[in-house]
Structure prediction request, 397 residues.
Amino acid sequence: MAIVFADTAWVLISSALVLFMLPGLALFYGGMVRRKNVLSSMMYSFVVMGIVAVLWVVIGYSLAFSEGNWFVGGLDHIFLVGIDYTSTTGTIPTYAFVAFQGMFAIITPALISGAVVGRIKFKSYIAFITIWSLIVYAPVCHWVWGGGFLTGEALDFAGGTVVHITSGVSALAILVFLGKRKGYGVDIIKPHNVTLTLIGTGLLWFGWFGFNAGSALAANEIAALAFMTTFVAPAAAGLSWMAAEWWGTGRPTALGFATGILAGLVAITPAAGFVTPMAAIAIGVVAGVVCYNAVILKGKLGYDDSLDVFGVHGVGGTTGALLTGVFATVGAAGLLSGNSHQLFLQLEGSAITMVYAVVCTLAIGFVLDKTLGLKVSVSEENIGLDQTQHGEKGYNF
Prediction:
């Protein structure tokens, strides 16, 4: 198929937008931690850009998108063998497709870092994201987008299952080995700079237009639809989270509104190119309320997910995946269009992904805990990981 230059330009721009989400994520997470961990928290997002970018080109892309079997791709494109500047995927150069998908591979493990900030050894974090990217992300990506057993079955336009469910449930699983932060549930642990988090939210929303609309892999009407749904769903989610928080606590917070926006972005991701803008508003409203209550439930259950990765990404991704099976009308039919089977497929795909990601993450965590060790010492946690892991301070007054 001949290259369409407009499609190529859009995918390249979208790839850059998705990578731009990493600094946005660093600011979003960095503002929510304590001052002594701001640099280490941001480093978790930035170092992934280096590690996974190289890993993706060396073997990750091949495992995800080479012709393999129902479970994982083969090694046909290890080191990008068989691909050069003349290769095409659809209407774009294959290098553009590799780059775009590589950005997704980068941001997914970075999301997990929000659950472990202030507790995990840096060398163990590097080992974790390296192994996790190969045995969790690449196979699930192959299942859904690369010709595996969920391809053409479960709907996932831009990564509700591949990105958010995998990262969200894996974040919850790794906490088994890390335990709670010192003082959790006793001391008041507050964000040190919500201003940074709000800036990060804006950058994430901006980059998310490339994340979702770029997944059309063309400058066409589906990209425009995904752009519009990515515009309205997080707006609705931010408002519904704010309303739920206002009702529950008597005060709407800036942090709550920002987190609601993120919940809406997560929830619309699997549905972006399959639903209308009005359906996207409904998805956003539901996601804001559901994720807010998931975060509240965390306090009652007592697990220490530092920055609510499971409550926002795990729960939000699952909510979006299921609601895609309800509201899909563009290029697919959901429950409201008379196809109840699609909702079952969404549930099945989500459940299989959850079980696989949790089992693999527990296995990785067990091995690393017994070898490198996962959690920093109590004294290191007290001092802060900026100094103990990196020899730096975020603020030198």
